[in-house]
Amino acid sequence: MMSQQGPTVDQTSVACMVLPLVAITVTSFRLYCRIQHGRLWFDDLWATFAMIFTFALLVIDWLYLQNYENYSQGVRVALYYMICQFFYAVVWCSRISILLTVVQLAVPGTLRKVLTYTTVTFVIAWAVLFAQVWWTCESEPSWKSQPRPQCDLGRNVSIAQIITDVFGDIILILAPFRLIYKVKLTKARKIRILAIFSTSAITTVVSLTHAYYVLSDGGLKEAIAAMVETSMSLIVANLSVVVAFFLRMSTEDDTCSPAQLPFARVRTFGSQPMRRHIKDPLTTTLIGVETITIRTDLPETCCRTLQNGNTDDISFNSIEGKQSVGELWRAYNVLL
């Protein structure tokens, strides 16, 4: 148990090891899912950056807490600076990854451009916080003589963290609402997708707690709060992909796809088989269409083929209500 004065060094070390390992494991699973489905994109690249910084933060935090007596004072100061900067790196790489996931879901247009430009504001916010640590700590260098150096970041840093964290998380919560609102999904699936992206609110709560300890010079409590924020930020960045993977596993047997339709294929005698390809612009699925005859006992809920003269016309009348095939696959499966 923690003492009344706060956590011990050993307790802090355990917390700073377990939480990042969980985040790294979740990120590794996310990358595995994307690689398996051949859907790697820029959001995965930033998630990978966040994972690398998390691992580096884990190692440096351990050296800073457990073995600082073995290093010179200059090395101890350098370790503290690295902890501060890697903390920002994990948090903002995770936010950029979430934002790029939303960008990937958006169709080309104004919203996609605005979200893309917003990533630049995230990088600027990260750069400002990065620089603020330097000018705050270097203006009062007396902390560098402590056995385990820790700068008193103070009010300005905590306020800057609160403003940027709330700003970033509000964007990450509202952007999917704007996107999903226009997609013809069932209400249950809309709620499911929005709930996944709304988990960014968790990082807001954790970041406010961390800012409080920064303001009150919380010592080891500040270190634990910072590690909780970085780990939660990375885990939340992966939820959209990981949850979509398990939802796909639970519903793939119920999905109607062209390859599973019970068509009775009949080739016309005395002529070559006709094959045409129709490609939905919103999905990578390619549908091969042959000259076919439809059995009259097929249910109306399946895909219906109409033949008029020399043309083959395929319509999908009852897949998720009014939802088109392209919208269904893009909005529901593109996360994998």
| Secondary-structure-derived class | mainly alpha
Instruction: List segments where confidence is low: pLDDT < 50 over at least 5 consecutive residues.
Output: 256-329
Strand content: 5-15%
SSE topology string? HHHHHHHHEEEEH
What is the residue-mean pLDDT, rounded to a whole number?
77
Fraction of residues in helix: 55-70%
The spatial strand order of the largest sheet comes to: 1-2
Between the first and last Cα atoms, what is the distance in angstroms?
41 Å
Write up this protein:
The protein has 336 residues and is mostly helical. It is 63% helix and 6% strand. The chain has nine helices and four strands; from the N terminus they run ααααααααββββα. It has helices spanning 9-36, 42-66, 73-105, 110-139, 154-181, 187-197, 200-215, 220-251, 325-333, and strands at residues 275-279, 286-290, 304-308, 311-315. The strands form two sheets. A two-stranded antiparallel ribbon has the order 1-2. A hairpin with a 2-residue loop joins β3 (304-308) and β4 (311-315). The longest helix is centred in the first third of the chain and has 33 residues, at 73-105. It is globular and about 60 Å long. The two termini are 41 Å apart. Residues 256-329 have low confidence and may be disordered.
What key phrases describe this protein's structure?
336 residues, mainly alpha, two-stranded antiparallel ribbon, two-stranded antiparallel sheet, 63% helix, 6% strand, globular
